[in-house]
Design goal:
Layout: H1 2-20, H2 30-38, H3 43-53, H4 59-71, H5 75-100, H6 103-115, H7 117-123, H8 129-148, H9 153-167, H10 173-187, H11 192-206, H12 210-221, H13 233-241, H14 246-260, H15 267-287, H16 301-314, H17 318-338, H18 346-360, E1 363-366, H19 371-374, E2 382-384, H20 388-395, E3 401-403, H21 412-422
Parallel strand pairs: 1-2, 1-3
Helix pairs in contact: 1-5, 1-6, 3-12, 5-6, 5-7, 5-8, 6-16, 6-17, 7-17, 8-9, 8-10, 9-11, 10-11, 10-15, 13-14, 14-16, 15-16
């Protein structure tokens, strides 16, 4: 056991550095400001907003509500709430891989997760995804502990508690719980009856939220922001999950395929871990309202890392291959996460809006609904405009006006201003 501590601590430290580096460098973007606005009121307001406007379970907003009261609303401090579980996820995957295979697999899998740009990105975002990854890994770890001693009530209770917490973090986490249940029913006859009981207990603990969730599902079915799936999407997903790198999006899936042939007696576990959280929502998105987004199945990263680790071990020149993959991952992490600006830069936009207002006395215009996000950082007077009449009223007596575009796509406001200029 002592021999495992040094690589475990080293990998967790590496993960922490990767997730803390430049964590507050970029502005909050739309989703983060949405989350922070949601928790600015009292606790009852948070729950009311979740029921009326959101489509997610309440655990992360509750955590964020408590966290911001401790640390404030600064970017680095708030995002630390995601960096912590993102770092712990690496340690949990190490423990799972060592339990299933050996220390070499544990080092490779945890190293992959520590340097994965996709995992790092969402460990630096004030949203629930790093928590979903960590809690999914914790649920798998608790389940494997329980399998070792099926008669243990304490281990069963720990799994039930972990499963219930996972269910409350994100609706897609339910697919991980389904995968775990199927694996036990398929491969663990001594645990089948107890697993049915455990599943019923998790459902009972989650039941207070089910009426709210059904209302949220109803809103999604009437229209959601996610685009329909197209045939090119799987290639994009591999690019995301492999760390925002085209070479890695080719190499890592190849290693995962090799790893799938080297899973031994745990193949059903690893494959269900991926196929259920990925396949079920993709199928539902094809036959109904699209609900699949590449960030929602973040819980499969642990299984992806295991497949890659086993694939590396199945090929010759393992150390050379490991070094090459690690170098590509570090390069992609630096280039695509640390040096690239991916978030909407509301902080920089606000600075430009304030400068325009102070130097020219300009009216700052934005589209309806976007003013709360623009004004998160800005002190300039923000006027939302949707019609020619509103535009005329906003510009009355003004010689200059600054246009605020909240998204990189062409906005209705931009077209409205162009049409007015041509009149």
């Amino acid at each position: 056991m002592a021999s495992a501590r040094i690589p475990l601590f080293a990998l967790v430290a590496l993960a922490a550095v990767a997730r803390l580096l430049l964590i507050g460098d970029e502005s909050y973007w739309f989703d983060e400001i949405w989350a922070l606005r949601q928790v600015r009121g009292d606790f009852g307001d948070v729950l009311a907003s979740l029921a009326a406007e959101d489509v997610h379970p309440p655990l992360y907003p509750i955590l964020l509500w408590a966290w911001t009261r401790l640390v404030g609303e600064g970017e680095a401090a708030v995002r630390l709430l995601s960096a912590i579980p993102g770092t712990l996820a690496v340690g949990l995957l190490f423990g799972i891989a060592r339990r299933l295979y050996d220390q070499r697999t544990a080092i490779l899998a945890a190293g992959f997760l520590a340097l994965n740009g996709f995992a790092v990105f969402f460990s630096q975002e004030a949203r629930a995804y790093a928590w979903m990854l960590m809690l999914a890994l914790m649920a798998w770890w608790l389940l494997l502990r329980w399998v070792e001693r099926p008669e243990s009530r304490g281990r069963m209770a720990a799994y039930v508690a972990g499963g219930a917490v996972l269910a409350y973090i994100h609706v897609f986490a339910l697919f991980t719980l389904i995968a775990q249940g199927l694996w036990v029913l398929w491969t663990q006859p001594r645990l089948r009856v107890r697993m049915i009981v455990a599943g019923a207990l998790v459902l009972a603990l989650f039941s207070p939220w089910i009426p709210v969730m059904l209302g949220q599902v109803g809103r999604v079915q009437t229209g959601f922001w996610i685009d329909p799936l197209v045939w090119t999407d799987p290639g994009k997903w591999l690019w995301y999950w492999s760390g925002y790198s085209i070479p890695l999006a080719v190499i890592l899936p190849f290693l995962a395929i090799m790893g799938a042939r080297n899973l031994g007696g745990h193949g059903k576990l690893v494959l269900l871990w991926i196929l259920i959280p990925l396949g079920v929502p993709v199928f539902l998105s094809v036959v109904g309202e699209p609900i699949f987004h590449h960030k929602y199945p973040i819980a499969i990263l642990g299984a992806y890392a295991l497949l890659v680790a086993r694939g590396v071990q199945a090929l010759p020149r393992e150390r050379l291959l490991t070094g090459a993959v690690a170098a590509l991952m570090v390069f992609a992490l630096v280039r695509e996460v640390y040096l690239r600006t991916d978030k909407e830069q509301y902080r920089e936009l606000a600075a430009a809006a304030d400068a325009a207002q102070h130097s020219q006395g300009a009216v700052i215009l934005t589209e309806p609904g976007m003013a709360p996000y623009v004004t998160w950082y800005s002190t300039a007077p923000i006027i939302s405009v949707a019609t020619p009449q509103e535009l005329d009223a906003a510009l009355m007596g003004q010689t200059h006006a600054a246009l605020v575009m909240a998204h990189p796509t062409r906005s209705k406001l931009e077209k409205l201003l162009e049409d007015r200029a041509s009149d």
